[in-house]
Amino acid sequence: MTAESNSDDRLRPLPARPRPRSGESTDSYIRRLAHANHLKPSYLRGYLAGPPDYGYGNRPKAERLAVVTGRQQASLERALIDLAPRKPTEPDQPAKPKRRVTLSADKPALFAAIRRDAHAEHLTVTPLAKRNRVHNRTVVQALSSPNPPPRKPRTLQENPALDRVRPALDAILDEYAAKHCGHLPSTRLIWERLLDEYDADVSYATIRRFLSGHPLKNPNGVTSTPGRPAGNFLAATQQTLQAGMVRHYRGMLAAVRQQPAMHGIDGSFATTTAFVLGCDAGSSWGMLTGFHEWLVTRLGKGHDLTWPVLVRHLTPAGWVHPLTPHADIEAVATLFQLLAEFLDQREQPDGLAEIFRTYQSWLNTQSWHHFETPPPNQID
Hints:
Residues 1-28 are annotated as: Disordered. The protein is mainly α. The chain is built from 17 helices and no strands.
């Protein structure tokens, strides 16, 4: 007897076993089954997936579901539309030849071969398509013009399942980011909370794909502004902060300002500055990109100063050293106010590039920024 059969022998029917509805999905039935027995849907779903990992993202096993519901596996497979395994293909059925996958760079050579065969052997469209393993439309395009048509722009595919849970997903991410310095929760944690707290019908793979492209997961994956010339000072600034990342930073900073002790700081300017620097390091130094330049243009000087010093210069009382208790409170309030205004500008479509353009314009007005190099024959 295998280990799998031993684990099935230990299964027992649940006390409450609602009847499955005809045409119902497996996830929907598991949620109703969990609610009827006062269980978390994520726990029951993982339990039905079985060992070894009681899989997060794995499909529940039909035989385990049959045991806990006290029903025949065949009846469950007839009622639940996605529980029955897919039928394998007939072994005697001849396999269709795979269609050729052609890259854009290979199309000119393919078109030339099609036109050569058509001219040399006088083949029609269908034989040419079979020989080159392409669609008839490709052959017609090759015969009409030697130049392949440009590819159609790829459009983003909509995900209705993700759109349905996006408000709940944003709420979970905002709450977690406010408590954990802007970091993302794990896929498993988000998926469990969506199932248990929001009764969401979403797969583990959908959440995993969503997080893999999240701006906080890939801090360097920022968007570029089209139409800007490359190769100059602003080439590296053609980036905009994703709106989702700004939202997480706002929630995190608001939580730190309201309850600094919960984040391990005493609320002073020194510890608050250290906390913000740590968050910037945790975001691969992307959170405060442009903050120093933005402060310099706002103050009108201080390009050689660090941003904490610039913030202290921008307090209502100006530079005070050493910091008095009252000046320390003002410096902390000024820091959070400046960060909020800075994130407001970075959230704009061209905000970061505009910050650096303004900084470059300010540099051009400074006399020390311009210097003349004497001709080569005048250099000693």
